[in-house]
Amino acid sequence: MLTALLCIGAALLDHYLGEPRRWHPLVGFGGLAQRVEALAYGPPELSAKARREHGIGAVIVLLVPFIVTTWLLIKIPLIGLAVALGLLYLAIGAHSLAQHAEAVMAALQAGDLPLARQKLAMIVSRDTDDLDEEGISRATVESVLENGCDAIFGALFWFVLAGAAGVVGYRLANTLDALWGYRTPHYLHFGWAAARLDDALNWLPARLTALSYALAGRQPALAWRCWQEQAPGWKSPNAGPVMAAGAGALGLALGGPARYHGEWQSRPALGEGLAPRAEDIGRAVALVRRALWLWLAAILVGGLALA
């Protein structure tokens, strides 16, 4: 029951306060990870196997001290509860996700495509320079759906399952994947451990997120069908179910070709229906918000049952 109350409290803190404007711990951790990468990456002549081992070592060095420190802190009476609440609040990014997406939507509705591309570039890794309204809307909706799992539901899942230490390990691993988990020549082997760890930690949260999108959407049957038929063709084992179910729940046609770092990638179609427009960004944000209330209700019911 205490876990459920902490989840609700952290979600409310995020809703009313948003993320810290300065000195966010994940930003600081990202800077630390860059310094560790500079030390651990090794010389250009390293073999693929050795580069992968260096990446594994970097992940261990970065994650274990923070997880152990968190585990020790939450053992302290009273202080431990405050630490757990504060860490979960920092791990949940629902307010920030909505804020970034709505900034793109506002720019589109004002007819300012350059500003919309600029705002979009802050939340996606694809190239945004030549996107039109439909392309910007599609990229934003996809980002909202996918990051709903990474920034909200995965954090809640690991907090419920493993407490504050679990959510710290999850969010830091997720951050390393965002930094190193690319299939580029530079990160293909060094980032292997970060990418595989993130895949493992997100496997069940992603499928629970897809289910919550289906239940919170207006077209649950379509969301389920898109999830089952389209997700297996997506390159990411976790983003596929989340985005396919979300696209179906919204009745939108997502996916398709996209350009990353100057190279076009062929991506399968996701969902079914109309091409996304600016107003659909708001619908995606609302879907994630309804799914969050479903999660909190389920966690509360579970806490009451166990109590």
TrEMBL record:
Alphabetical list of InterPro entries matching this protein: Cobalamin_biosynth_CobD/CbiB (IPR004485)
Primary localization: membrane
A GO-annotated cellular component: plasma membrane
Protein name: Cobalamin biosynthesis protein CobD
The protein's annotated pathway: Cofactor biosynthesis; adenosylcobalamin biosynthesis
Keyword DNA-binding: no
NCBIfam families linked to this entry: cobal_cbiB
Keyword Cell membrane part of the UniProt annotation: yes
Signal peptide residues on this chain, from the entry's feature table: none
Taxonomic lineage: Bacteria, Pseudomonadati, Pseudomonadota, Gammaproteobacteria, Candidatus Competibacteraceae
Gene behind the chain: cobD
